Every structure is written in structure tokens, then in C-alpha cells.
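Let us walk through a complete example step by step. Step one is to write down the protein sequence. Step two is to encode the small molecule, nicotinamide-adenine-dinucleotide, as a SMILES string so that its atoms and bonds are unambiguous. Step three, shown after the inputs, is the structure prediction itself.
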Amino acid sequence: MGKVRLGLIGLGLMGTPHARTLIKVPECDLVAASDVDEKQKAVTEELGIKFYRRYEEMIEKENLQGVILAVPNHLHVSIGIACAQQGLHLFVEKPIAQSVSEADRLIEAAKKNKVRILVGHQRRFSSLVEKAREIVAGGELGRLVGVTVTWALLKPGPYFEGPLSWRKDKGGGPILINLIHEIDNLRYICGEIDQVFALTSNKVRNFHVEDTASIALRFKNGALGTIFLSDCAPSLTSWEGTTGENPLLYHDFGNCYNFFGTDGSLLFPQMKRLYYSDPAKAGWNYPITEQGYKMVREDPYIKEFSHFCRVVSGKEESRTSGEDGRRTLEVTLAIQRSGETGQPIVL
Ligand SMILES: NC(=O)c1ccc[n+]([C@@H]2O[C@H](COP(=O)([O-])OP(=O)(O)OC[C@H]3O[C@@H](n4cnc5c(N)ncnc54)[C@H](O)[C@@H]3O)[C@@H](O)[C@H]2O)c1
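Step three: the predicted structure of the complex.
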């Protein structure tokens, strides 16, 4: 198969590692990248690709098939629409947009210009998540009863200082920055969420934005979920603290999710299924059987960009379409609103 000609827009904290990954993906031909900040040219020189300060010039001159948008959230829609109008397929970093109505504008523009969208929820490409989905959605646990999620860790002081102090204000808290990934995982593994209720607190950090939240969920299939979220508690019980998928963050080997079904439960990411092997000896009087799954760990970003190339070539449907990214955003914003109003929200 011919390589897919790609350009990248935004060479910041996320875009720079994306450029380094894209260069390694056999199906991708990353030919150029753009950033308004001239300092980011260095990485393009290191990788041997062209640099543009103006993305408009890049998409006009480079005969691209698709673009990767790794610009700040408020630019996803305007730049995404400009690229769609040039017929370029879109990889949009999460969140797809800052509001549901903005997401709709981007989805509409993509449809009108016949281009496809893949939203950057890379955890869908984690082999752990793929396996959990196979087990839960595939019925190995019986009917899903519920799920618990813990995301607790300590963000260090510098995370909130200097140019990063926007993280103390609305939109900069763990609901919109971090929880959105857990919500996307839950939707992917357990199914659609149709009701949320959140209690939030900022009592530890005293910022305008929440530092802690306790969240209840109802899934369309009737299962229930609870999430405890906090960025001010020293702990290893989080996706980052247990999966090791972010090499920059310390991790150990605990569990951050527990899926419960009528026939068994699954500890994640240890990938241990607990069930009663003898139906005549089922219930809390009896020892429970533990089964492990052999996992092969692969880089989710490499898999995600390979998939993007196949989406551009029309060989695969987008695993996280614009509509999917929009729904994950809608649920996450509803949780934020529920925390602000103290009211449950039916979606
Ligand atoms: N998938 C994930 O796990 C994950 C993690 C972190 C960030 N993100 C997302 O990635 C995106 C970027 O975040 P970041 O942390 O890299 O931000 P950042 O501020 O570090 O980088 C953004 C870059 O975009 C450049 N830029 C701004 N306007 C531009 C324009 N008009 N044209 C070209 N370049 C422009 C900036 O100069 C900067 O270098 C955000 O949407 C964020 O939510 C995703």
C-alpha cells in the first residue's frame, strides 16, 4: 500500500511526540509540520520534514491527504474546518471541541467535504482496553452489573504555575482534562452512558476549578458505575499509576477499574477474571477462581496512527468518529454541569 501523505499542526507537548511517533509508522508519510512558534522548527529539522509557520501555506502546498491537529482545544474547530474544506481527512486531538455545538459544526463540515474524522482517544488502541472490551462486551462476565473507577493521584505544584496557571480555572480541572479519557474508555468497554450525577469539591487546593469529584453513572444497558476522581491525593490508583502507558509517570501494578458482571468480575489492568468455576459451589461461602489473560503490550499511538492511515484510505471505519468524540465530550460536560448545579442529568 502507498504511504499516506500527512501534515501535523501544532508541535507542542503533544504534537512533538506525535511527530516522533508518526515518523516510525510504516503507513504514514509525515512530510511537514506547522507551528506559529518558530522555536518548534528544531524538531522538524531533527526529523527531516518541512516546517511552516502558517498551516494555511502547508495545506495549500504539500498535497496532503490528512492532517493531525495537536493545537490548543479552542482551535480544533476553526483549523479543522479550514482543513476539511481543502479535502483533508482529520485526526483531531481530544476533546473534539470545547462545546457540543462546536463539535457539531466540525462534524457537519467534515460531512459536507466528504472527509473522515478520528478523535485522539488513544486508549481505545491500548491492548488492555481492547481485551477488556472483548471480555465485557463479549459477555464473558455475564450481564454487566456495574463498574468502579478510581483516578486518584497528586499533580505536582509546577503543573499549575506560570503559563500553566489557567489550570486553576474552569476547564483546567481533572474533569475536562483527565476524566474525559475514563469516560471514553467506559463508553467503549461498557456501552452508552445515559445518566450522570456528580459531587465536586475544591476544598484542598482552593482553586476555582474542582480538585476532587465523586460521580455516579447509569448505562443504557442498566449497569451502574461510580468514579472517584482526585488530583490532590498521593496515590497509585489511577490509569497512569497502574497501566504504565505514560512512560513519564511513575507506576506500579495495582488496578484502577473493576468490572462486575453476573458471572464474574474483571480487575483492570491486572486483567484477572474472578468467577466460580463450579456452579454448585458459587457464592460467598466458597473460594473464587482467578484467571489471568496473557497480554501483549503495544504502543497505542503507533496503532492509532496506522489506523488513521487506513481510515484516510477508506479501508477502515474510524474507531473514534466525530460523533463518538462528541458523545464523550457531551457526557463529560454533563458531569461538570451536574457538579456545578448539584442536579443529576439525563442525557
Ligand atoms: N490524547 C492525550 O492524551 C492528550 C494529552 C495532552 C494533550 N492532548 C491534547 O493535545 C492538544 C495540544 O495540547 P498540548 O498540551 O500539546 O498544547 P501545547 O500548548 O503544548 O501545544 C500546542 C501547540 O500549538 C501551537 N499552535 C497554536 N496555534 C497554532 C496555529 N494556528 N498553527 C500552528 N500551531 C499553532 C502552539 O504554538 C503550541 O506549540 C490539546 O487539544 C490537548 O487537549 C491530548
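Step four is interpretation. Residues 9-15, 34-37, 40, 55, 70-73, 75, 93-94, 120, 122 surround nicotinamide-adenine-dinucleotide (CB under 6 Å).
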